Amino acid sequence: MARALVLADEEPYVPLARLLEQSFDLVLCLGDLGHHDLAALERTGLPKLGVHGNHDDGDEFVGLGIEDVHLRAVDVAGMTIGGFSGPSPAGAGSLRP
Q1: Among 7, 35, 1, which Cα is nearest to 19's?
Q2: In what order do the strands lie in the sheet with 4-7?
Q3: Residue range 8-23, pLDDT digits in tens
Q4: Long-range CB pairs of 35-44, under 8 A, 24+ apart, other chains included
Q5: Contact 89, 62 (CB under 8 A)
Q6: CB 91 within 8 A of CB 65
Q7: Sign of CA dihedral 34, 7, 14, 43
Q8: Angstrom distance (rounded) from CA 78 to CA 9
Q9: pLDDT value, residue 55
């Protein structure tokens, strides 16, 4: 079974760089974390998948190698992972395309 490092909503209590020293097969970013919270992911070769949260602006994954999986599925580490982002922070309850 694959081991995933799952990140969402709040910066981890343990520094992300230290968490990445552990044995994981992939990283899942589930929204509401800023680019600065995720910056340590730039240096890992692990597969990184993510969706944006309702408080995100949309630029959180830029330059970090995180693949946005909103409204699609990908196969990684022997699993199929699908994504569904939160509503746009701009209001109206619409979903990002």
Answers
A1: 7
A2: 4-7, 26-29, 48-50, 67-68
A3: 999 999 999 999 999 9
A4: 35/59, 35/60, 35/61, 35/62, 35/64, 37/7, 37/11, 38/7, 38/64, 38/66, 39/64, 40/15, 40/16, 41/16, 41/65, 41/66, 43/17, 44/20
A5: no
A6: no
A7: negative
A8: 26
A9: 87
The Cα 73–Cα 22 span in angstroms is 26
Q: Report d(CA 25, CA 5) in Å as an integer.
A: 8
Answer yes or no: pTM beyond 0.85: yes
C-alpha pair distances (Å), 90 with each of 7, 9, 31, 34, 97: 23, 18, 16, 17, 14
